[in-house]
C-alpha cells in the first residue's frame, strides 16, 4: 500500500495537526498556525491517540515530546502529506498574482546578503500575497529537509548528496577585501603583500573551504586574527580595523558599495566555484514550485546585474 493510500485511512486534517504538533512541540503554536482554538487541537490529538493506540506526545517542561511511535509515524506522515500536496498542486492552477502560498528557502547568511534583496523585489512584483520564510543554512541537514519537504529549495555553493535536483545558477570566484587605508596601488597585490596582511577567516562550516585548501597546497600561511561564522559581520569589522578577508566576488562588490573598503584580486590562483539551486526530485513537480524555482533563478541573475 502506498503511503498516500495508507494516510488516506486517517482524516488528512488530523495528520496535518499531528505534523504541526511534532514540529512545534506546542498545542498553542499548532492552533495559531491553523487559526483554530487550542481545544480543537486537543480534541484532534485525542482522536489520533484513540485511532493509533498510542499517547503520541508526552507533555513536559520542554513541550509536547513525541513518543517513539510518534517519531516513526512522523517520517511517514510528513512524506505522505507532501506527496498528496504535490499531486493536488500538479492538477491545480497556480496564479502568482493571487496566491497566498508559503515558500521555504534555505540560505546561508551570505545568500541572504547577496540574493535576498533581489528575490524579495521579484516576489513583491509578481506575487505580493506570497509569503517567504528563509531557513538558516545547516549544510548537513539540507538533503534531509529537501527529502522531507521541509524546505522548497536551497541555494548553496556546496554539493549535497541524495536525490535532490541541482541547477548551476551562478559562477563565482574569490577576491580579497581590505580597508581603503591598506589598499595600496593597483587592482591586485603581491604574494608578499598578501602574507603581511592580518586576516579575518570565515569558518569552513559555511562551505567556503577552497581558500584554505589552496593556501595549504602553496605553502602560504595567513596571519589570522579573527575567526567568524557569519559574513554579515564583516563590513563593520573591516571598516574599523586593519584586517582583510577573502570572500566571493559578488559579496565583495556589495561591501565595496556600502563601506569604505577596497576589492583586490588575489596574487595566486583559486578555482572558481558554482552557486547551485537545489530542489527535491519528485515524479510530479507542482506548477507553484516550478514558478518559484524560475523566480529564484531570475532573482540570482538580477542580483548580479546580468540580464535574466
Summarize the structure in words.
This protein is of the alpha/beta class. The chain has three domains: 3-91, Arc Repressor Mutant, subunit A, CATH 1.10.10; 102-171 and 274-303, D-Maltodextrin-Binding Protein, domain 2 (3-Layer(aba) Sandwich), CATH 3.40.190.10; 174-271, 3-Layer(aba) Sandwich (D-Maltodextrin-Binding Protein, domain 2). It is built from twelve helices and twelve strands. It has helices spanning 3-8, 12-24, 27-34, 38-52, 68-91, 109-126, 142-148, 191-196, 210-218, 234-239, 249-258, 287-303, and strands spanning 57-60, 63-66, 102-107, 131-136, 153-156, 165-172, 174-179, 198-202, 223-228, 243-248, 261-264, 273-279. The strands form three sheets. The chain has a five-stranded mixed sheet with strand order 4-3-5-12-6, with helices on one face. A five-stranded mixed sheet has the order 9-8-10-7-11. Helix 2 (12-24) crosses helix 3 (27-34), helix 2 (12-24) crosses helix 5 (68-91) and helix 6 packs across helix 12. The protein is elongated and about 75 Å long. The two termini are 45 Å apart. Residues 1-8 have low confidence and may be disordered. InterPro entries: LysR-type_TF, LysR_HTH_N, LysR_subst-bd, WH-like_DNA-bd_sf, WH_DNA-bd_sf. Belongs to the LysR transcriptional regulatory family. Residues 10-67 form the HTH lysR-type domain. Keywords: DNA-binding, Transcription, Transcription regulation.
Amino acid at each position: 500500500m502506498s503511503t498516500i493510500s495508507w494516510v488516506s485511512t486517517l482524516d488528512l486534517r488530523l495528520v496535518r495537526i499531528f505534523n504541526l504538533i511534532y514540529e512545534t512541540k506546542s498545542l498553542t503554536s499548532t492552533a495559531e498556525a491553523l487559526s483554530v482554538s487550542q481545544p480543537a487541537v486537543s480534541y484532534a490529538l485525542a482522536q489520533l491517540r484513540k485511532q493509533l493506540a498510542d499517547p503520541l506526545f508526552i507533555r513536559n517542561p520542554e513541550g509536547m515530546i513525541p513518543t517513539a511511535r510518534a517519531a516513526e509515524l512522523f517520517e511517514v506522515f510528513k512524506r505522505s502529506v507532501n506527496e498528496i500536496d504535490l499531486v493536488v498542486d500538479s492538477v491545480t492552477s497556480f496564479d502568482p498574482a493571487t496566491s497566498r502560498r508559503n515558500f521555504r528557502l534555505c540560505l546561508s547568511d551570505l545568500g541572504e546578503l547577496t540574493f535576498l534583496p533581489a528575490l524579495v523585489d521579484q516576489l513583491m512584483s509578481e506575487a505580493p500575497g506570497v509569503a517567504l520564510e528563509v531557513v538558516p543554512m545547516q549544510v548537513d541537514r539540507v538533503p534531509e529537509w529537501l527529502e522531507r519537504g521541509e524546505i522548497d529549495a536551497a541555494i548553496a555553493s556546496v554539493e549535497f548528496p541524495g536525490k535532490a535536483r541541482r541547477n548551476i545558477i551562478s559562477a563565482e570566484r574569490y577576491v580579497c577585501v581590505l580597508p581603503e587605508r591598506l589598499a595600496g596601488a593597483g587592482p591586485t597585490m603581491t604574494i608578499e603583500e598578501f602574507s603581511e596582511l592580518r586576516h579575518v577567516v570565515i569558518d569552513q562550516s559555511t562551505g567556503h573551504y577552497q581558500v584554505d585548501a589552496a593556501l595549504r597546497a602553496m605553502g602560504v600561511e595567513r596571519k589570522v586574527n579573527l575567526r567568524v561564522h557569519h559574513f554579515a559581520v564583516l563590513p563593520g569589522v573591516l571598516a574599523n580595523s586593519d584586517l582583510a578577508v577573502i570572500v566571493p566576488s559578488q559579496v565583495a562588490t556589495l561591501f565595496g558599495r556600502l563601506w569604505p573598503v577596497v576589492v583586490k584580486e588575489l596574487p595566486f590562483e583559486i578555482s572558481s566555484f558554482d552557486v547551485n539551486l537545489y530542489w527535491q526530485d519528485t515524479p510530479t513537480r507542482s506548477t507553484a514550485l516550478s514558478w518559484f524555482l524560475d523566480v529564484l533563478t531570475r532573482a540570482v541573475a538580477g542580483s548580479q546585474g546580468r540580464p535574466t
